[in-house]
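Re-running Vesicular glutamate transporter 1-like to confirm reproducibility after the cluster update. Everything else is unchanged from the original entry.
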Amino acid sequence: MLNILHFGNLWGLYLQLQSVPKFMAEVVGFSLKEAGALGALPHLMRMIFGTAYGSIGDYLKKNKVMSPKAIRKSFILASHIIPGILMICVIFMGCNWVPLIILLTFSMAINGAAVLTNLQNPQDLAPNFAGSIFGIISCIGGTTGFLVPAITGAFIQKHNGLKEWSYTFILGGCVYIGTGIIFILFGSVEEQPWNRIADTENH
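Result of re-run:
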């Protein structure tokens, strides 16, 4: 389930990183320089919000306000569900760049909650193998780095307009929401038995 959750997060990340600047330049009408600068804003806000989310998560866990399971699954709302909804809402903004930038920026900002969900879950499952787990999920999730531009290119191959781009944003939103819901229903935060194998062998 962690693989699925991380895949959804990286899909949204690469959509913002690779496809949104192209959309801003070719459809909304910004120059490449302007589109690049505006495209950096959501990632800056994601970094700031991610730091804040980390502090919030530490407080909730340290003071036993919420269990690790409750923290992981409730913050899926911020890391996946709401960004997915906002991604779909982009199609209703047309070329109105102000609300468009606000939506995209807020979508990435609250996705900073990923520090409490898919980025933290490897530590829950197997602290002794967290690095290996993260390497595996990043390898699988990294496939979105070529899937997103390939699918976007297929959508806009014949005509590069708002209608065609709407398919890209709807798909991105659905991937966000779908992967988040799957983890909420089936994801685990329990330490896995095989995490103790190394400790047992050492004794």
